[in-house]
Amino acid sequence: MAMITDQIANSFITLLETKTYNNITIRMICDGVPTSRNTFYYYFDNKEQLVEWICCRDFMKHCFPFFNISADNVSTQSFFSYILKNKRFYFVIYEIEGGNLLRNCLNRAYDKAAEKENIGEFAHLANSNKKKIDIRVYRSYGNSGIAAVVIFWIGDGMKIPISDMAADLKVMLTNSLEEARDNYLF
Q1: Residue 32 phi/psi, 5° resolution?
Q2: What is the model's pLDDT at position 92?
Q3: Which of residues 60 and 118 earns the better pLDDT score?
Q4: How far is CA 177 from the centre of its chain?
Q5: Range of 157's domain?
Q6: Per the CB 3.0–4.6 Å rule, which of 24, 31, 76, 151 could disulfide with 166?
Q7: Burial category of 106 from C-beta neighbours within 10 Å (exposed 0-12, middle 13-18, buried 19 and up)
């Protein structure tokens, strides 16, 4: 049986297929589980926090575990494929606040992925005396880029093939900005 948070999320996603975001109430979400409003509020403060949780869950499940597999851009393709499969949800969330809700959700998902306990599971942490960069700078840079690319792709109607998005993102993430500009743009 799915966890109650997954059931709440699934109820909300199902409601988005027939109702607008603003017309969905917490009561409607709870009726779809079924569960009480108290249970909803035990896990989430509001719909925005539920949306953030869904985006984070999706990112952690469909993108983050594949970060260390770079050969065929698996992580990017996995996440973009999942977004395409759940196009209605992501497009509705994209439309809220001009993309700001989705941007904030993706930023928080990346923040969670960049926590040391999560990175340690998938990365090779260096124990060197090299100067460390400020984790806040790393998160800000990573968040901004990834969120901007996802939001651009959704806003563009998801027309660019996933394999092209993945390849472009890989170039941007694995090369300096100067190298990407000079060798890949023109």
Answers
A1: -75, -10
A2: 93
A3: 60
A4: 23
A5: 55-179
A6: 76
A7: buried
42 token code pair: 């035990």
Residue 60 sits in the same domain as residue 25: no
- In the predicted model, is pLDDT for residue 69 greater than 70? no
How many CA atoms lie less than 13 Å away from 11 in the CB half-sphere?
A: 23
Size of the chain, expressed as the number of residues it contains: 186
Six token digits for residue 84: 């395409």
| Residue 148 CB contacts under 8 Å (≥ 6 apart), including other chains | 103
Q: Could you tell me the two tokens for 176?
A: 């300096």
Q: CA-CA distance, 10 to 15, in Å (whole number)?
A: 9
How far is residue 78's CA from residue 6's CA, in Å, rounded to a whole number?
20
Name the nearest CA neighbour of 30 among 48, 20, 52, 15.
Answer: 15
CATH assignment of the domain containing 22: 1.10.10.60
Query: Mind listing the pLDDT tens digit for each residue in 88-116?
Result: 999 999 999 888 999 999 888 888 877 77
DSSP code at position 22? G
Say if residue 64 is exposed, middle or buried (CB neighbours under 10 Å; 0-12, 13-18, 19+). Answer: buried
Cis geometry, peptide bond prior to residue 65 (ω within 30 degrees of 0): no
pLDDT for residue 68 is more than 90: no
| C-alpha span between 75 and 63 (Å, rounded) | 5
